[in-house]
Protein 1
Amino acid sequence: MTTLFKASGSAGASGAAHGSRGVFSLPGRLFDAHEAVGRGLAAYLEPLFNLAARIWMGKIFFDSGLIRISTWEKQASLFTNIHPVPGVPGNIAAIAATAGELALPVLLVVGLFTRVPALGLLIMSFVIQFVSAQTPQGIENEISNPQHYLWMFLFGYLVIRGGGPLSIDGFIKSQRE
């Protein structure tokens, strides 16, 4: 195991080698232990964290898509009058948001091309927080929510890391190696 701090092996004034590993020996060994624990956490807990993030975030958006379908007659009006997306007609925004909230979470949860649905839902979270929430109707209806920042960080993590070993992506990767 490589240590951060290496002791000098040079001879002292008497020509004999130092018997101890130097002043940084204990901090070096503590750092090595710290890194070993971190590698263990990454190997065993990160796949579970990744899966939990995918399931939790997928459920939030899929449930929202189901609500949109159950109140479909209101959706175009909501995207036109309550939380419009600038430059996008309300009926188009309603269809795109509903399709995204139903399809992307399924891909995210099973971990198929994980970065794609994570990026799509990251963009959707960004639009919710910084576009729709900043309209007069959005401010009035309190669409802006600090929880969206957590969503964006989790989606960013999934874009960077992918689905991990507990995903279809992970299975495909293991078969190709």
Protein 2
Amino acid sequence: MSRRSGWLEKWSKGRMVSMVEASYRRVGVKKTPRKKLFKKEVVAPNEDLYYILDKKVRLGELSLTGGSVFSPKELVEVELQVSQYQVRMRLLGKILKVTTFVELKRPVFRGEIHFSAVNKEDFDHLVALDDERKKREAEWATRGQSSPLKETHKVTFKRS
């Protein structure tokens, strides 16, 4: 499936608070009969790709806006750039509700999205970079120097 570009928007009380450029792709899910799930020899080859996000963590009212049609209950993988470390982060989300509007004489589709998982490889890489940054800051603090790195963004997710 091809990647498309769009915008991830955060809304609060009916107003857009922030907007980030993102790319996304549709994720196909193979449905298997329940009987196959209970066989011991059947193991999903990609079962360790994502960390499931805690259901209690609410990321806010988020929507994905793009030029392609979304359908409710569709799964999409959204890729964001984490500018502090110049790395990508892929999140798996489900489209809940879709609205359409016209902008510059072209139809634009906005899907309310709920993220349920984060890519393990991207998350572990980001955590390692953050741990390395904290270690360097601790070394500078023991030498009595101030850190040359400015902490402007924080990314926090809870592992389950």
Protein 3
Amino acid sequence: MSQITLANNVPTSNTPAAEFRLLQGANQIARIGVHAGGAAAVPTTTSYNVQATTSMGDFTLTSNALTFSDTSALVLAQVLNEDGYFDFQLIQLPGTQPSAITLENTWRSPVQFTITQPGTPVEIINVVDESNNAIVSTAEQWSCYAIVNGITTATVTTNNPNATFTVTADNNESSYTLTLS
């Protein structure tokens, strides 16, 4: 399995920790504090679990869970009336956009979709209004920035699912740089 490494090379005398923010496309997938001299690994995978919830009056409906590895998919939330009972379910259809999961709501109330990636801290939550859709990027593009002593580094971007982002103190030790390797 691939993983992105977040390394803190700032001396302990400057700060006890740096906070890293890791994004895949527009989705923040990790917010991790790393102690000075330490590192954290965030697994990267192209496997997805999707489940949804919605409401029907006073009732909360929870859908079935979908698991798939396609980087392009249409996930459709629908409520069916089967033999007098309401069945809230998700179905997966072929994707309509490359490198994206389209979340579509056909129900008359908002639907909350939760996307997770097994073995990772990733949890993406999208609320889609009635008869609407939302797009979640699955492109292999990661961006990262770090916050050290309240100072935010420049954002660094990569397409490498095995990249290492390292934060270091600049020569004056009052600003910080994030590098990619």
Protein 4
Amino acid sequence: MKLHRRRVLHLIAIAAASPAMPRIARAQAYPARPIRLVIPFPPGGAFDTVGRPLADKMKLLLGTVVVENIGGGGSSIGAAAVARALPDGYTILLGGTQTHVNETLLKSRPLYDPIKDLDPVAGVAANVLCMRVLAVTSPTRLSAAPELPTAAELGFPGMTVRGSIGLLAPARTPGAVIEQIAQATRKAIAEPVFQQMLSDAGIEATLDSNPEKFRQSLAADVALWAPVVKALGLKID
């Protein structure tokens, strides 16, 4: 029985393509290589306290996560490096309130636009206690230090300020990749051991965060500080 020439060519093409298809699928799977987590401050400090243990936890969920400290410029240099990276999920930033407020409000010559150039992934932590304090400026008492009253409880109801630390990716990173990193982040933060480690360091974990929640939190932080910076004429460059 003879096969039509076109049919034969079609069968040959299918046979040739079939072995390659699994390889293509594997090449497109995320993550296929180590992920770079940039901390935009020198080693030590709150960002390292959060970022390095988080990277260790996420290795179990995403594979190798390499931490790289890129300090300088009040977080500008490291954050700008992430903003300019390929939006493929292999370079992410541990940023938050400080990086957004610094670049949006306090720089005369910003190196990047944190709103346009970075996509929020998930919040990780908030209030940080690093010294002897009389009160906290969060809306409620911290689980890490429940004995400390809030500023509102001491008679300063308008003194409510929260800061956040979380993960951000270069703008235009695929939504599926961002959600995969966000899910891994939530799983890592959900571990009681991880939460306790942060609490022991005076840091409160952010639970059940997602890209939109983190985006709204950062926008609220910038809106909170904008009139203060304008009124005082503050600039750090």
